[in-house]
Design goal:
14 helices; three-stranded mixed sheet; alpha/beta; eight-stranded mixed sheet; 19 strands; 19% helix
Length: 659
């Protein structure tokens, strides 16, 4: 079903928003021509030193491999036959999901009368996955599932000219076994969870704002999604810095690391690891151009990327000594320098990831102790800023710790501001450079909550990435472990004084190939060897088309290999300024978080980025930034909703009202 940008009919909401911006910026200077959000008839955008809204902290929780229908296809209706009970709040708005979407609250372009659970264009019907680990008797399955195909070209094939009818043939996994040993079934790609398993996210949707019209910026797996999150541009691979022969797409072998971009260069279309990382040990690439970290540095704003497992199990200095390179400068970077050292042998169940070999049991929140395998905590190709020399911490340097291994307060106080130094224009890689472990974020929140550090110690912009077993990715993670990470993280932010000026965005890096019925249409066309969205071929060579040929409009920065938008993904905003129990129908994508950051702090857009393409859509929809309709900046703030990370239920409902 085609999805198009939705124009807000409630222009009063826009008036409220712009009024609040004016209140938040008394005496601000006139708009600057460098701001890509131009003034329009319905609002005026100001550029000034402070934020344009009351939001002073943006936190992105970037999870893994879930489509909207996979988690929210029957929202807000749960079966309530197992797992946590879920009961819908009065007045919950409709979404465009698997059930008939005919409510007048939905814009006409998002409505459909079909019940996709009983009449579906694919070769099998979607089935409910239950809340157990491995599936109850008679169930389609539980929380531990096989991973699905989510390659750039194969996802386009599943879309099949917008008919959305080839998911089983193109993306369903029919070989191999699940974490608990049962054969994978291609038809599982169609299946979904409800609020009895993804209870926490459904409760956040009930009390804050969610979008049912948000998409992957492009097609493809995790690495393109991570790059789209921080720069919105996957088309500028730095071919001077690659390792281990990244694969290149051809019409008959289209699912590859790199796709020719039509300008003599390449676009990143698969999961090559980041070049600038001592924990990368296979095919790796770097990217050129700017990302949001560069813009924040230029503006003097604090920021950080926090990822589970980023803290090395073997420090850089210890690794140099063990390999006979003691005294080597941090400015020296050698790809795969520590791969042959096999430091992983000192960590049971780990794979060889250079300096980073921490692991956790799969399904820990479901009782996993190793019977379902283990997963690396750190996953290099999820670490977005490591692809750029300007924002990388290749040696995984850490902030200072005390004798017990805990971060010092002085070290925590440097988080977000420790940009590396340069000598003769060359990066020295001599600081953490805004890249940290998730434990650093946890300790920072604790220090702020305990008033050991001021609220200002929280970065203006934080990107949070769970350790592998908690990131939601099928085959090695699950909804329960994901919920425990997300709810714990949101709870600790709500417990700080910063909460009252924070916006938390929950979004995903890709769909994992899980079925979703929504077709966004082509926002950015592409004619590359890997493309097969338009005039789709099911066998042999690809059609080479995403959109018309010849192209009616030029792709962003003239780069091919960036076909988008891709599959529909969950998008939630949790904030005192988020609308409560609200569903936004305006178009957004993975780059929408940086679009808001650029808007809020008056930063210029990134050349060639999807934030620029979406800005055109915003002007048509008469909103100042992609996610504007998910916020309200006047009136009473939306209260904090702490959740029990294990149950996903509101704490007050479990404990009773507080005195």
């Amino acid at each position: 079903m085609k999805r198009f940008p939705v124009v807000l009919t409630a222009l009063a909401a826009l008036s409220v928003l712009t009024a609040s911006v004016a209140l938040a910026s008394p005496g601000g200077p006139a708009p600057q021509s460098g701001d890509h959000h131009q003034s329009g008839n319905s609002h005026q955008v100001l550029t000034f030193g402070g934020p344009k809204t009351p939001i002073t902290h943006v936190v992105e929780i970037f999870q893994e491999n879930v489509s909207f229908d996979h988690y929210f296809g029957t929202y807000p209706k749960a079966a309530n036959t197992d797992g946590q009970p879920f009961h819908t709040l009065p007045g919950t708005p409709a979404v465009d999901g698997l059930l008939p979407a005919t409510s007048s609250s939905l814009p006409p372009s998002l409505r459909h009368a079909a019940n996709l659970l009983s009449a579906n264009p694919n070769a099998a019907l979607p089935k409910r996955l239950d809340s157990s680990a491995t599936g109850l008797p008679g169930s389609a399955g539980g929380q531990l599932t096989c991973d699905q195909d989510h390659n750039y070209s194969d996802e386009q094939k599943a879309f099949d000219n917008g008919q959305m009818d080839k998911f089983i043939e193109s993306l369903g996994t029919g070989g191999g076994t699940s974490p608990f040993g049962t054969p994978c079934n291609r038809e599982t790609v169609m299946d979904y969870y409800d609020g009895n398993a993804v209870t926490g996210l459904w409760n956040y949707a009930q009390h804050y704002a969610m979008s049912d019209n948000s998409y992957g910026t492009t097609f493809g797996p995790s690495s393109p999604g991570a790059i789209n999150l921080i720069s919105g541009d996957t088309g500028n691979v730095d071919m001077a810095h690659i390792a281990n022969n990244p694969s290149i797409a051809t019409p008959t072998s289209p699912n590859a690391d790199l796709t020719p971009n039509g300008k003599g260069g390449y676009a990143l279309t698969s999961d090559a690891q980041p070049y600038w990382d001592d924990c990368s040990t296979r095919d790796a690439v770097a990217l050129s151009g700017k990302n949001i970290g560069d813009l924040l540095n230029e503006a003097g704003l604090s920021w950080g990327w926090f990822e589970g497992g980023f803290r090395p199990t073997t420090s850089y200095q210890a690794a140099l000594e063990a390999t006979g390179h003691a005294g080597q400068s941090t400015s020296t970077f050698v790809p795969d320098e520590f791969k042959a050292a096999e430091f992983n042998k000192a960590v049971a169940h780990s794979s060889n990831q250079g300096l980073c070999n921490a692991v956790s049991p799969v399904g820990e929140g479901l009782g996993g102790t190793g019977q379902w395998g283990y997963k690396d905590d750190y996953i290099p190709h999820h670490s977005a800023f490591e692809y750029y020399a300007s924002t990388a911490n290749p040696h995984h340097l850490t902030i200072p710790t005390n004798s017990k291994g805990h971060d010092t307060l002085a070290g925590l106080a440097t988080i977000g501001t420790d940009t590396q130094s340069y000598v003769g224009g060359r990066p020295q890689f001599d600081t953490p450079n805004h890249n940290y472990d998730m434990s650093d974020f946890d300790q920072l929140m604790t220090a702020i909550s305990n008033h050991e550090l001021p609220a200002g110690a929280m970065p203006a912009v934080s990107f949070l990435k769970a350790p592998g077993y908690q990131d939601g990715h099928a085959a090695y993670s699950d909804p329960q472990d994901e919920q425990e990470f997300v709810a714990h993280t949101v709870d600790e932010i709500m417990n700080t004084p910063d909460w009252k000026h924070t916006a938390i965005v929950i979004n995903y890096d890709d769909s994992d190939g899980w079925y979703d019925h929504a077709d966004p249409g082509v926002l950015n066309p592409s004619l590359s060897a890997a493309d097969n969205l338009t005039n789709t071929t099911m066998t042999g060579a690809t059609s080479g088309r995403c959109g018309p040929n010849p192209q009616a409009t030029q792709p962003l920065d003239g780069e091919q290999g960036r076909c988008g938008l891709g599959p529909r993904l969950p998008m939630l905003v949790i904030s005192p300024f988020a609308k409560s129990n609200s569903v936004d129908h305006n178009l957004s994508n993975q780059a929408s978080t940086i679009d808001f950051v650029e808007y809020n702090w008056g930063l210029p857009g990134i050349s060639g980025s999807f934030d620029q393409a979406q800005a055109k859509v915003d002007r048509a929809a008469r909103v100042p930034f992609d996610l504007a309709a998910m916020f309200q900046f006047t009136g009473r703030p939306t209260p904090a909703l702490p959740l029990n990370p294990v149950t996903g239920q509101p704490v007050e409902e479990e404990d009773g009202p507080r005195a």
